[in-house]
Amino acid sequence: MEIRTTTRITSATYQDALAIRQNVFVKEQHVDPALEVDANEAKCTYFVAYEAGLPIGCGRLLPEDYGYHIQRVAVEKAFRHRGVGAALLKAMRTFASEVQAPELRLDAQLQAVGFYKALGYTPTDRPVFEEAGIQHQQMHLLLK
Questions:
Q1: Contact yes or no for 95/10 (Cβ under 8 A)
Q2: What global pTM score does this model have?
Q3: How far apart are CA 142 and CA 105, in angstroms?
Q4: Among 9, 82, 15, 96, which Cα is nearest to 51's?
Q5: Which residues pair with 6 in a beta bridge?
Q6: Rounded to the nearest 5 degrees, what angle is found at the Cα of 128, between the Cα atoms of 127 and 130?
Q7: Choosing a second label site near 122 at 20 to 30 A (CA), which of 12, 73, 78, 129?
Q8: Residue 133 — φ and ψ, nearest 5°?
Q9: What is the tens place of the pLDDT at every residue in 81-128?
Q10: Closest CA to 1 of 64, 73, 50
């Protein structure tokens, strides 16, 4: 597996991330397409996992005052439970650590909370909330 990063929304890597997000969030989870692409696209660093040249998973880091907000983590259905998501989260954590970010936060879909806990993330005090019609739990990981 190879993980590529980009900050350019004109790049092929970014386009691959959009295609994965379309498949997972819009088609599979029925997220409104108007909510899926947002005003933060050009502010993020994108991570895309590839297997034999095929884009299979993605995520992005949005810079925030506390560090980074992990968003849009998605793995194509045929490649789930193979370590793709964990590899993406590890790459994002390494990136954030290298630039000395103090903290990572994310909004986990409730069915994914256990996955993130296994990677060291813990729930914050924020109550469970709904976003795009899906229940989420905010989680974080202190890097310093």
A1: no
A2: 0.95
A3: 9
A4: 82
A5: 46
A6: 130
A7: 78
A8: 80, 10
A9: 999 999 999 999 999 999 999 999 999 999 999 999 999 999 999 999
A10: 50
Count Cβ atoms within 10 A of the Cβ of residue 138 and give its class: 0-12 exposed, 13-18 middle, 19 or more buried: middle
Give pLDDT tens digits for 65-76: 999 999 999 999
Give the span between the Cα atoms of 104 and 121, in whole angstroms: 9
CB 66 within 8 A of CB 103: yes
Phi, psi for 77 (deg, rounded to 5)? -50, -45
Task: Determine phi and psi for 87, rounding to 5 degrees.
Answer: -65, -40
Output the DSSP codes for the chain.
-EEEEE--TTSHHHHHHHHHHIIIIIIIT---HHHHS-TTGGG-EEEEEEETTEEEEEEEEEEETTEEEEEEEEE-GGGTTSSHHHHHHHHHHHHHHHTT-SEEEEEEEGGGHHHHHHTT-EE-SSPPEEETTEEEEEEEEE--
CA–CA–CA angle 91, 95, 98 (5° rounding): 135
